[in-house]
Amino acid sequence: MELFLVSVLLLRFSHKNVTIADAQSIGVCNGQLGDNLPSDQEVVQLYQSNGIGRMRMYGPNPSTLEALRGSNIEFVLDVPNSDLPALGSDPSAASQWVQTNVGNYFPGVKFRYIAVGNEVDPNKADTAQYVQFVLPAMQNVYNAIAALGLQVSTATYSALVSNSYPPSQGSFDGVKSFMEPIIQFLAANKSPLLANIYPYFAYNGDQQHITLPYALFTASDDQSGYQNLFDAMLDAMYSAVEKVGGPRVEIVVSESGWPSDGGSAGATLDDAGTYYKNLIQHVNGGSGTPKRPGKAIETCLLCLMRIRRMEQELSNILAYFPPTSSLSAKLLSIS
């Protein structure tokens, strides 16, 4: 998801009266992509000073894991797709991976979920090769980690959901043979499904039927009774999960974001600010979705570590922070 920026997502949005510290259900992904990045200890301190209580990473990094010891930050650790064949084929390889990347740091690091694979899609050329290994790897990792009492899942995404409108019609048609046993595994072990939910891509791909206000949480109800695209996409995923044996499987939003530039419709700093502000308020507000009302929605904001280097981009990002803030200083120091 290389359209997104790290800096704008370690958000204060001070001019909009929203902080991540206000959001009990919010985490931020630590992508670690870029040059001249702050140290892992500085990143952990940045999370703590901004009240960010959860972090997701897309693969193990010993330096980050060491920095997380004793921080009390809840940590979602991915098994990279490239590791799936080995872990799915060999239980001993899964045991070694768990010991090296989890056992050696537990309980000092507060692991929340182990996400076995990210956006593996039978219909995508770059991930189809991993399809046969996802469930076996989940099973082997689960068996290796069971004694620690940690939850094992996988991170999927909205592209696998067919018939997504109205949300009640959501299904895994076309990928049922892949997703059904995964959902049944999660149901049997009382683990959530992790899902990457991006209203921006749905809006950008169908502007004839989806309005920008609906995607930014600023519209009224649509014909199906949904007030925003995020809820509609999440409930379509819930409908698909229910249809393959997971009526009580919860969904954790493992990524969501909005681009601040890139030339596409809606990809502006103001629209990104509106999306994040409203997303944080919504998922933390306790209203839930029409299918799962009355509770907060656990959500991670996408946050890639400075993939843009342009001066103007940095200037635009710094406009979101007080000139004397520690975050502004940090952004300046890595520019």
What can you tell me about this protein's structure?
By secondary structure, the protein is of the alpha/beta class. The protein has a single domain (7-333), classed as Glycosidases (TIM Barrel), CATH 3.20.20.80. The protein is 36% helix and 13% strand. It contains twelve helices and eight strands. Strands 1-2-3-4-5-6-7-8 form an eight-stranded parallel beta barrel, surrounded by four helices. Helix 10 links the parallel strand 7 (251-256) and strand 8. Helix 4 (91-103) crosses helix 5 and helix 5 (131-145) runs parallel beside helix 6 (176-188). It is globular, with a radius of gyration of 19 Å. It starts with 25 loop residues before the first strand and ends with a helix. Mean pLDDT is 84; it is low at 1-18 and 304-335. It comes from Camellia lanceoleosa. This is Glucan endo-1,3-beta-glucosidase, acidic isoform GI9.
